[in-house]
Amino acid sequence: MGWNNIGERGFYAFTNGIVYEGKWKPVDDYGIIRLDNENFYLPALSKIHKRNKNAYVNERRFIHAPKREVAAQEYFMLLHELYGDNGIVAICFYLATLFRDIITDTTRSFPILNIYGKKGTGKTEFALSLINLFQRNPEVSNLDSTTYYAMGDKCAEVSNMLVHFDEYKNSLSKKHIDFLKGIYDNAGRSKRSADGERRESTNVDCGVVLTGQEMPTADIALFSRVIFLESQRSERTKEETDKYQTFMKLRNMCPTNITVSLMRYRDNFNAGWFNAWKRALGEIKSEVDYSTIGERFINNWAMMLATYYCLHSIAEELPFSEKEVHDICIEGLKYQHSLCNSTDEIAVFWSMFSKARQLGDIREGQDYKVCLMKTLKVTAKGKQRKVVDFETDRYVLFIREKICIAKANIQARREGKVLIPDESLLSYLVSTPDYYGKTNSPLKFYILDENGKPTRKANDSGNASLVFDQERALAFDYQSICGNYDINLVTVSEPEKDKFNNE
Description:
By secondary structure, this protein is α+β, with helices and mostly antiparallel strands. The chain has helices at residues 72-83, 85-98, 100-107, 123-131, 148-156, 174-184, 220-223, 238-251, 256-262, 266-287, 295-312, 322-343, 345-358, 401-414, 422-429, 478-485, 499-502, and strands at 2-4, 11-14, 17-20, 23-26, 32-34, 39-41, 112-117, 141-142, 162-166, 187-192, 199-203, 207-212, 226-231, 368-379, 385-399, 435-439, 443-446, 456-458, 464-466, 468-471, 474-477.
């Protein structure tokens, strides 16, 4: 179902007909569409199979038979009024999905729409409001009970249409997570052919809507492949409830006429896409810090903005201004990137580091220290020794590499999280702008006893002296680390007040 790039012009298929050259062409009683120069056969509703209730069950959902014509402007406006800015982004995603093959010819990738929120915030109903533009009585696939193989089959059934997977959890199997990541690159499931002689793969040519109560942070690579929308409101006013009921009546009309109507702009979209893509990409890169926000995030949101730019001037169905959509996409990009800063591997490490410190497993003075420095002598990765001179005294964080990573790993396992391998994590840490280098000379670190006191050892003369470990340490910009990852690693002490003064 959906786009089929066959025949002279290609066509967009529903079970009971096709959109050909922007016009609806229904099937006859035998499932045949008869055109001037070519004919097509859609078997699902043919008289031959009509009585077989077990055949073409999934295909029969994709039927273009609205109970009444629904105006696209009215539908889109209500979606926006009910779901706010998220509604506009979702509309852009729906529009982009209609012309997904044109977009991926340029971008080679296509994001997943992720709707996240707590129970009762309307995530699933929001998703179904998009799915109903393609089919009636849509099937909701719960990822807990959907196999990796079934996910591949479901995505392979349609092209330039939407597929919905519900109840995403970070505890899903690695195969589930890897499949979701592969959707971004149009990669489906690989398998051996029936005769075992060749390898076959199912391509993903559909748009995917992913809903759930957990942010997709099991793998930061997955989070960077989604358009992230957060659904927060679980309570609505009477006016909003009435508006929702009005919208449900429209949705229950099976408004596939909106999709059929928009397909008449395919040739216009094909002609204008590249320029719209360059415009959106250029605008976003000029308004955000391109060196900080990854290219994948920028590309994902640029696809949504470019889709609207491409259609707005020719499609009267689109009620929002270009500036409104532009501002929403910029804010959505910045917000998603800010969340990425708290969910990527480096952020997780510093979070585990801070928690282990608060629990007493990582100790100041023994495992790390913070010093006020004027000059710092370090060796950066793959470079010669260098001297860093600060204009004013600056706090530098020194950490012992192996023990700190090991203790952060222990804390992560306590919370059911898994950090990436030590070598990879170290590579990420030393690649951040917060990293100065590794100290040229070993630093002294206390060996603390169970009470947190520095260990002392008596020498031959009977005098006690402090005992230290010595190790070259990793040096970081302390203030930058605290600001970027919202942590504080300095212990503050103050004189104890007596009871009288305290009162």
